[in-house]
Predict the structure.
Amino acid sequence: MVHKLMRVFLAVILMTLLAGTALAAGPLKAALIYDMGGKFDKSFNEAAYKGAEMFRKEFGDKYRDFEPTNETQYEQAIRRFASRGTDIIVVVGFSYQGVLEKMAPEFPDTKFVIIDSEVKQPNVLSIQFKEHEGSFLVGMIAAMKAKGDTVGFVGGMDVPLIRKFHLGYEEGVHYVKPNAKVLMNMTGTTPSAWADPIRAGELARGQMDRGAEVVYAAAGSSGNGVLQAAADAGRFSIGVDSNQNYLHPGSVLTSMVKRVDLAVFDALKSAREGHFKGGSLHLGLKEGGVDYALDEYNKDLITEEMKAKVDDAKAKIISGEIKVTDYFDIMDK
Amino acid sequence: MAAPKKLPVWVNAGLIPLINLMAAFAISAVVILAVGENPIEAAGHILYGAFGFGEGIGYTLYYATNFIFTGLAVAMAFHCFLFNIGGEGQAYIGGLGIGLVCLYMGNLPFWAILPLAVMGGALFGGLWALIPAYLQAKRGSHIVITTIMFNFIASSVMTFLLVDWLKKPGSQLPETRHFAEAAFMPKVHEMLASVGLDVARSPLNLSFLIALLCCLGVWIFIWRTRWGYEIRASGKNPKAAVYGGISPSKAIILSMCISGALAGLVGLNELMGVQHRVVVNFTNGYGFVGIAIALMGRNHPLGIIFASLLMGALYQGGAELAFEMPTLTSDMIWTIQGFVILFTGALEHMFRPQLERIFIKSDSEGEVYE
């Protein structure tokens, strides 16, 4: 009994101490670890970097970052940052899942954020995006823009995550034109498929030769090749992750934006302000985690009528009236 | 007396590589200066990161393990004058063999799994090399082209298997479930802890010893067996080999299969030692680096060990450097590694004429006065 009381007492003291340090916190010690796509991929990793930069500008706290060159360095980097008293470590990319499952319990006082995957630990915030919802909308736009019945999709590396993009896109296309054909190619089967614009562009040209009027690139920096090929051929393309409309105005129809930057910014901010909580976030259209991009570069390409239809579908997805299939739900069946 | 003079061994095997290495570091220093950092401080970080503390040494040796396997693989084929660029794919498929053993025979004890896994990796890697070898030996298809192509086929096959067949249900990652505990390669720090020695934890594991055993095995095979002789003979001159009663196509197939088998053992270190499951792209370029390792190590097992240590040190020390000096990004580390490969591998003969002039001249002068 005495023991138990003692323990409660200690716990209370400890918590006050912890709360005290949280309140008196100086600058936040944050670290970002990218995946092997590299920091400046104009897409996914770069979005995370932008989020961290936003945080630095707003709060003035410096952060550290690291680009691993092989998978062994994942663990090494996390261990290094965590054991040097880093408060929060953001790991960018699903390939960190396995490592983080092992490391998070080892460093219970460090906060972790993982993007694009889920790790069920009390000190880990898992942020996933409903890419299928955003892809559904750009699929609708592609189908409405195409005069004929053929559109295309060029993925990066052939992994379930990219199949999720593809499935959502296909459903969006079929929502508008049930008989339309969606051509599909993956750039490759190794991580170099994220950084091979030549090959991705070649695939896009092949699809355009077979009649595709709009090609959606979900391929990291390889996608730049798709956008270029479409612009050269006078056809349309759809960008991904970051807003890529500005790259080829008049040819990039829209972009499926995934707000990795905002997610990283929010996570760092909550850690700094002391209300960081582990758990799982699924950011879709409703949460503003994904969307289609409309700005001055593509406003002439999207007619009022198209916009009305897409926004209508968007509202229906948010309300649950339209259900877009998530590839992760069906992949093991 | 008229026989051409050779450089003394210590110059050939010691001084020349050292000078080449220094030249590589000198050029790297210029690059580091150009981005506004202190090259001496950077060199210190690399050295300390690779050899300065227990964990660093462990990582260096762990990387070296991969390089020894793939370096030996390239060297083995090169003794038959075959340029095996397919180490990457052979290592990948070999990993499949190792993975299948560990996944489906995981209920066996470790001492039974280990030989089966070695056989699995060697068999799968060897068979993957057999096809290009057969095409070269019997159809004259150039081994460089076929082995490069087989890397792509290997990666497609593995992605297909990992995404559609072997994937752990419920996971979005292209990887298998974890192996049973019995299939984990014992880590060196665990083994030493069990006899009371306290060493820093690192991924270094038993497969480092297996790699060293392979070095010994390759040395015996190449220079002390009839098969090794046949391989070297048909590599040097296939026509003379035929005259000597050796079948070059047999030598090609034999050397390529052993080469693929050696590359196939990378999975012992990567999968059984560290990842404990089959993951997509675990080979991560080690197969290609093996070419540079064999080049730097002059296709000799001892040279390959040293070259692997050097490369392992650059991998590990380079990672430490990127931690400590964030302006030197991973691309900069690649650049330094590139210079080292360029100078110690490709430009091996750059300083040789000068050194020959110095050492051979003074030698013959010595003879004159005798």
In short: Chain A touches chain B through 32 residues (CB under 8 Å). The radius of gyration of chain A is 22 Å. The first strand of chain A starts at residue 30 and ends at 33.
